[in-house]
C-alpha cells in the first residue's frame, strides 16, 4: 500500500499508553490537526479501525480532572436550565425530536417486548425526554445528570406532577456511574453518548447491559457524523459516524436491534440517529 510506512509508524506510536501520550502532550492545535487528519481520514479510511482512541485530547488533566470532561462541565455551567438550553438553541426541532422518539420507543416496549416498569434517562438535563417520551410509558423513572442545576429544575419545576413518579435522581457522571443490576426496561441516552470518550462509552454500555431487565433495551439517540469522527473542543462532544458508534456497541457485547435516522430535521443540523440495542 502506498502509505504503508506512514501507516506503520503512526500505528506503532498510537499503541503507546495514555500516560506516555500524556507526557508527550502537544498543543491543542496539533490535537485538532490530529483529529482532522488522523481520526477522520487515517484511521477510518486507511486502516478501517472504527474504534477511535482519543489519547491526545482526553488524557490531559486540568485541576485534577480529565480535560475532556472538565471542558464539558464548564460548558454546561453556562447553559440555562430550559428546553432551549437542552436543545442548544434549536427549539423548533424539539417536538419533531420527541415524536420521533415516541415512535421509535414503541417498537421495543409492550406485550412480548420490554416491560414498562422502570426506565433510566441518562444525561436527562431538565428532563425534556423524560417528560415528553418516557413518563407517559413507564410506571416509574430514574434520572441521571452531572449538573445539579438541571436536576433541581427538573424536580422543582419542569416535571410538574411527573416528579412524583421519579424513584431516584442520580447526580453523577455517566463515566463514573454503575447502574444497579437487573433494574431497567429502557435506558435512554440522548445527546450524552457524544460526551463520553470511546473507552468510557464502551465501558458504560457494558455496565448498562447488566442493569437491563429481561427484554430490556438501551437506546442511544445522538448526532452522527457524515464521515469519520469530529470533536468539538468547546463542549467536548464527539460526533461519530454511525459505523463507529455501532462498532463501540458491538465491542461492548451488545447486539443492535434497530438503527433509524431521525427524519424532519433541517439539513443544516448534523444528522441524528437512534440505535436500539440489548
Ligand atoms: C444536550 S443536553 C441533552 C439533555 C437531554 N438528554 C435532552 O435531550 O433534552 C446534554 C446533557 O448531558 C449532560 N451530560 C454531559 N456530559 C455528561 C456526563 N459525562 N455524565 C452525565 N451527564 C452528562 C449535560 O449536563 C446535559 O444535561
Automatic annotation (TrEMBL):
Q: Which UniProt keywords apply?
A: Methyltransferase, S-adenosyl-L-methionine, Transferase
InterPro entries reported in the protein's UniProt record: MeTrfase_NTM1 (IPR008576), SAM-dependent_MTases_sf (IPR029063)
The keyword Methyltransferase is annotated on this UniProt entry: yes
Quote a single Gene Ontology cellular component term.
cytoplasm
Is DNA damage given among the entry's keywords? no
Q: Name one GO biological process term.
A: methylation
Q: Which molecular function terms from Gene Ontology are attached? A: N-terminal protein N-methyltransferase activity
Describe the family membership recorded for this protein in Swiss-Prot or TrEMBL.
Answer: Belongs to the methyltransferase superfamily. NTM1 family.
Q: Know the name of this protein?
A: Alpha N-terminal protein methyltransferase 1B
Source organism: Hemibagrus guttatus
Amino acid at each position: 500500500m502506498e502509505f504503508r510506512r506512514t501507516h506503520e509508524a503512526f500505528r506503532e506510536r498510537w499503541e503507546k499508553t495514555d500516560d506516555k501520550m500524556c507526557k508527550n502532550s502537544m498543543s491543542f492545535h496539533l490535537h485538532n490537526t490530529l483529529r482532522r487528519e488522523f481520526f477522520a481520514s487515517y484511521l477510518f479510511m486507511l486502516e478501517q479501525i472504527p474504534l477511535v482512541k482519543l489519547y491526545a485530547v482526553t488524557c490531559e488533566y486540568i485541576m485534577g480532572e480529565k480535560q475532556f470532561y472538565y471542558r464539558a462541565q464548564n460548558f454546561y455551567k453556562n447553559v440555562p436550565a430550559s428546553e432551549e438550553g437542552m436543545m442548544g438553541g434549536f427549539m423548533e426541532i424539539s417536538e419533531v425530536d420527541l415524536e420521533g422518539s415516541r415512535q421509535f420507543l414503541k417498537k421495543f416496549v409492550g406485550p412480548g417486548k420490554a416491560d414498562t416498569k422502570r426506565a433510566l434517562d441518562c444525561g436527562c438535563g431538565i428532563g425534556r425526554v423524560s417528560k415528553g417520551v418516557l413518563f407517559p410509558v413507564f410506571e416509574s423513572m430514574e434520572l441521571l445528570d452531572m449538573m445539579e442545576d438541571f436536576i433541581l429544575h427538573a424536580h422543582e419545576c419542569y416535571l410538574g406532577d411527573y416528579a412524583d413518579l421519579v424513584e431516584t435522581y442520580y447526580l453523577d457522571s455517566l463515566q463514573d456511574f454503575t447502574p444497579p443490576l437487573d433494574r431497567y426496561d429502557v435506558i435512554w441516552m440522548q445527546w450524552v453518548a457524544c460526551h463520553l470518550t470511546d473507552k468510557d462509552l464502551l465501558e458504560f454500555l457494558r455496565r448498562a447491559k447488566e442493569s437491563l431487565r429481561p427484554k430490556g433495551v438501551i437506546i442511544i439517540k445522538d448526532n452522527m457524523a457524515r464521515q469519520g469522527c469530529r470533536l468539538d473542543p468547546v463542549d467536548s462532544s464527539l460526533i461519530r459516524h454511525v459505523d463507529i458508534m455501532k462498532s463501540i456497541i458491538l465491542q461492548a457485547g451488545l447486539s443492535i436491534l434497530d438503527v433509524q435516522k431521525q427524519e424532519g430535521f433541517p439539513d443544516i443540523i448534523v444528522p441524528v440517529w437512534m440505535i436500539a440495542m440489548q
